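S., here's the first fold you wanted:
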Amino acid sequence: MKKLLVIISMFMVFLVGYGKVKPLDVNMEAGTKIPNFELRDFNGKYTKSRKIFNNGKPTLLVFAAEWCPHCHTELPEVQKFYEENKDNINVVVVFTSRRTNLTATKQFVAENKFTFPVYYDANQSLMNGFKVKNVPTNLIIQNSVIENVFVQIMDYDNLKQAFYLN
């Protein structure tokens, strides 16, 4: 009976200690390895970040918002960059739910005819995990490692320079 109680106690300790999912916590500096997380598309389908970040291509990760005037300036530039480089560079745009909703964000993307991959941060876990305070925020990622962070509006030429495509 004592053995059974010990086994049950050990199992409970394991569940309590390892059963919790840690919130995403990313140090937003060059050289930081990003832990795996999930991206949720506009239809609620989830994709593991490592599937994108570890496919051998560098990645442009953009945090944006449909209400943000700076994003309105940047995202058409991202679209142009995506169209010309989608075979060699991943482009991922994560829209925040901060001060908006999914319906308004979907409408914004459709009206602007954006074709780059879009995801929605419904519960702010990505914005909080990456400690994003301002949009747009742009990260250059290679093999799940941050190479550079730009908290500014990026135009087409800036994006080319960030990926050494001159």
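And the second, which I think is the more interesting of the pair:
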Amino acid sequence: MLRWLRGFVLPAAACQDAEPPTRYETLFQTLDRNGDGVVDIGELQEGLRNLGIPLGQDAEEKIFTTGDINKDGKLDFEEFMKYLKDHEKKMKLAFKSLDKNNDGKIEAAEIVQSLQILGLTISEKQAELILQSIDADGTMTVDWNEWRDYFLFNPVTDIEEIIRFWKHSTGIDIGDSLTIPDEFTEDEKKSGQWWRQLLAGGVAGAVSRTSTAPLDRLKIMMQVHGSKSDKMNIFGGFRQMVKEGGVRSLWRGNGTNVIKIAPETAVKFWAYEQYKKLLTEEGQKLGTLERFISGSMAGATAQTFIYPMEVMKTRLAVGKTGQYSGIYDCAKKILKHEGLGAFYKGYIPNLLGIIPYAGIDLAVYELLKSYWLENFAKDTVNPGVMVLLGCGALSSTCGQLASYPLALVRTRMQAQAMVEGTTQLNMVGLFQRIISKEGIPGLYRGITPNFMKVLPAVGISYVVYENMKQTLGVNQK
């Protein structure tokens, strides 16, 4: 990123702790576009952009927040020089912590070893791709000068932030999953980046769910009504829904599905932070296992909180035209005729389904992405949007295959009271009846429309999420 610095501003030097001011002065004069002896945020952004190193508004503002000692909104030469010298000291400490054998060079094996100590696992080939992005002389090792030049204007301050930078900028995943809430740094929390990212994700989820709602309702109808004695295929199901309630009925229950995004996301994010604290001691890094357990428990907690809305979504989707006037009417009738316990029908199979889905989704995603990086990556550790979307779609599909029977039983338990003449069975009883009357395929009724919505849902969600991030000013890392 900053290879142009060699021979221009920072000539090659042997691991010096202090740089002569004249070397900083050349760079300062380059950034001071109007020659008034100070650099403001606009000059810094324009200067770095012209030099081919745009960092993004948050990074540049962080440099100013740290370097602007007198808080006048400008950096004079003394402030500029002090910031760079202080930043170099932090980068020197980070460099030494990675240089395990103290030979003045960082090698791929040392990166792998350092990340393993932090509970993160990457292959040596992935570590080599990280080195390539920093290595200026093609030796496949990084010395202090290369390291310093690369991170000169990157406001990361320690190894943890450097790893997060690698994760976001190179595509290396350190254990996050679509089913697990993202983590945010203290700076992201203070700057408001966290809620912008959550809002972007919420809007993306709402648009994605609304776009694929007809397939979702068809899935529920097939799960509830599609038995051997009353078969329902995709075409017949759509025709039946349109005939019964018109085209608008294809979106019946979608309002509840969208409304529950906000509380589900908020509870999951809060619960994830709490479970992380319980599973790790203060200052300890979160490993993949702890991350998975925290994510699964957070998902279970969020589901417990919003589960009544899941029941109402199913009732609205299965209900006939005019049966319910809306969410409130649906809740009132369920409470009146079935009692409070009805809002948690199917809760046990729903809870049991979280573990296989989240676990298999995460494991398959990691496996597919690692396979691509090992066999097809040449000069980058960024698989690219299409590869990541493909990995996400396939891993989600595998997760659904494992958990779908539980999801089907959950839906039937939620809707049992609406189907005339249906005996109210528990989870085990429903499994037994489905297998005896419909066989094993009966546990997968409705899975075709469920699979049909995976790719469009992932694609739409990604496009909307990226556009929302730009609209809300989320820093593109």
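Why I say that: The chain has two domains: 21-170, 186-472. The longest strand covers residues 38-40.

Talk tomorrow,
H.
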